[in-house]
Amino acid sequence: MIESWILNELFQDLTDPFLIMALVLVVIHFGTPLAYYWYAKTQWLPKPWNIRVDGNYRPKVTVIVPTYNEAGFIEKKLDNVYQQDYPRDKVEVIVVDSASNDGTPEKVKQWSMKHPDFHVKLVQEPVRRGMAHALRTGFSYVKGDVVVITDADAIWEDPDTLKEVVKWLSCKGVGAVSCIKVPYRSKGFEETYRQYYNVLRVAESRAWSTPIFHGELSAFKKEFLEKVGGFPLGVGSAESLAAMKIAALGYRAITPDTITVSELIPQSNYVWWRIRRAQHLILHLVKTLRYLKHYNSSFKQVVLMEAYFHLINSWLFITGAVLLLYATLALRSILSSIFLALGLVLLPIRSYRVWVTNQLFLVVAQLRNLWRKELVWSKQRKL
Ligand code: GDP
Ligand code: MN
Alpha-carbon dihedral of residues 287, 293, 298, 303, nearest 10 degrees? Predict the structure, then answer.
């Protein structure tokens, strides 16, 4: 008797338009990225690079380090570049400081006095206008054929990093190169996120190019950067948009898995850090859509998919969850409550938890972008 009542209820639930709608949204939400990830991993990742490299190419390289209150890191950063196994007379570092008040410029000056065999230039902006502006300023001083930008708090663990970067750039068809990122001494959330993320960046790069670059290390052929008017303003990740403008000229923008950079993860305020970065990424993808018509069909698909994942897909999840909640509470749908419970029960699975949290970051980031784009941000403390 009771069983048949329950079955009857469940059956009725199944015809509930709220529930059906919610299920469709949730299936699309989880299905598209899973399918994309699977496709990228099985079809693109094993592809040959189709890149002809010259391991002996040694162009003059200019490394731009933008700094705002990096007194705690800048010396280590300069040491890190100094320790690169690359002809010293072919490396020039430009530190662009934007009115730091913690003694960063003084540290740069002291460091360069102690290393007369290394070319370090300090450019000081009188006011802070954000990282993109600093990169733009730095670019006007560049003498090298290759421009590399890097964060003060990013560590190039491998002394052959610069060699590797120019190796990939030695190919005529490559315009820009970035890195994959490994969280420094940080397990857990960030690591899980990066595991999947890095696979996608490399797979997309092998297919042709990836639309997402990193401030921890992004390198450009200077002539192309000049052609696209240098680093763009009005975005949080100028390096990614510059790369996408170069891709629009027909040159590849890639992140090879042989270039790895360690990055420090904030110990506190992690959530806001991730939201700020999501804001930058979202803004970047919106701007990249403008170049879509210049891309080949496979890269068009990549850009459209990434734009979809960062702009639309998270809303499907939120809407689906709200509909399920409504059906559970207002319509007393048993089936809806079962699905909701399932969504919660799965939370101990780390990949799922990281995914869901990331959807919330993306939604908050989109909303925040409406009134504050975080082009000048307060620094998260990192250890
Ligand atoms: P995160 O890696 O996303 O946490 O961003 P960071 O706070 O590490 O900033 C990236 C790099 O840009 C760091 O080297 C910062 O010092 C630098 N930076 C951030 N804002 C400014 C700015 O307004 N001017 C300059 N010159 N550098 C900045
Ligand atoms: Mn950083």
Answer: 10
Summarize the confidence of residues 129-137 as an average pLDDT: 97
Summarised one tens digit per residue, pLDDT across range 20-39 is 999 999 999 999 999 999 99
Ligand 1, pocket-test mutation among 76, 151, 231, most atoms within 8 A of CB: 151
- For residue 276, the ligand 1 atom closest to its alpha carbon is 3
Cβ–Cβ contacts within 10 Å for residue 123, how many?
Answer: 18
Of 24, 2, 3, 10, whose CA–CA distance to 332 is shortest?
10
**Amino acid in position 351:** S
Q: How far apart are CA 173 and CA 49, in angstroms?
A: 11
Using the 8-state DSSP alphabet, how is residue 379 labeled? P
Q: pTM of the prediction?
A: 0.95
Bridging pattern class, strands 61-67 and 146-149:
parallel
Asked whether 119 lines ligand 1 (CB < 6 A), one says no
**pLDDT over 90 at 218, yes or no:** yes
